Amino acid sequence: KVNHRLLLDGIFEACGVPIEMFRSICSAVDKLDKLTWEEVRSEMVNEKNLDGDIADKIGEYVRQSGKVELVEKLMEDQNLLGKSKTAKEGLEAMKLFLRYIDLYDLTEYVSFDLSLARGLDYYTGVIYEAVLLGDEKGEAVGSIAGGGRYDNLVGMFDPKHKNVPCVGVSIGVERIFSVLEAKLASDHQKIRTTEVQVYVASAQKNLTEERMKLCKEFWDAGIKAEQPYKKNPKLLVQLQHCEDMGIPWAIILGESEIQRGVVKLRNVTSRQEIEIARNAIAQELKNRLEST
Questions:
Q1: Distances (CA, A) of 269 to 234, 240, 242, 249, 291
Q2: Which of 5, 24, 103, 270 is the most buried (most CB within 10 A)?
Q3: Cβ atoms within 10 Å of 268's Cβ, excluding its own
Q4: Cα–Cα dist 115/96, whole Å
Q5: Is 57 in contact with 10 (CB distance < 8 Å)?
Q6: Across the chain, what does the average pLDDT equal?
Q7: Domains identified in the chain and CATH numbers
Q8: Helix (H) or strand (E) holding 145
Q9: What digits encode the pLDDT tens for the residues 12-64?
Q10: Which of 45, 23, 41 lies closest to 32 in space, CA to CA?
């Protein structure tokens, strides 16, 4: 969703909002993605003491959304442009922005939404929010990122108040992770918090150096390997760690396997185990990883 702060201010100006109330009314409009227009209007009139007729005029604008056709429609609105040069500037900027979006063939992903306000004071130009839409398994999630252009903020910290145009974005990391977790859970997949591809486990004591040698071989082959950091961990604890972390493969080393020149390769999901020659395990594992 995109909008322009100058256009929003121009709409307030044309509708008769006192300039000192622009930001407070803007914060009310910003709630339209969560509240109905009736609730937002009630806040404007009853809590912010805005005239009801002015609120109704605002409502006629901020409930509209579309593409470049909406920009063209507003460009013909003499009530808006006749009362606000700011609105004209905002519309011209939005027309150019949407033209560039069309050149990149991204029009289908962008909505010009007059209800988008971004409540912070420092925005001066284009404002935007990234909205995660639902799929056939669920409803739309809502905004996961937002930001805009701010020309005056950085200059506040410069001794000469130099104008430094900027754009920025904030990302809702927690919301994104919660969506990913829910999707994995619905697909009955475990949530992986590690990229480890194989875990080198030992079945007996005093095999730390053998584990280290095998890890080194895997690393040299470009395989992401890990081993337990305790000297003599219990085998069941190691295998449970693989299941909990979603590590797909485990190598089991024991004294018998070392003497025979083999290792056990365990599929963590199916719990099936096969013996592979010690000198061939890196290539065998690499082949299996590439085939999945």
A1: 19, 11, 9, 8, 16
A2: 5
A3: 18
A4: 20
A5: no
A6: 90
A7: 2-187 (3.30.930.10), 198-291 (3.40.50.800)
A8: strand 142-150
A9: 999 999 999 998 999 899 899 889 999 999 999 999 999 999 999 999 999 99
A10: 41
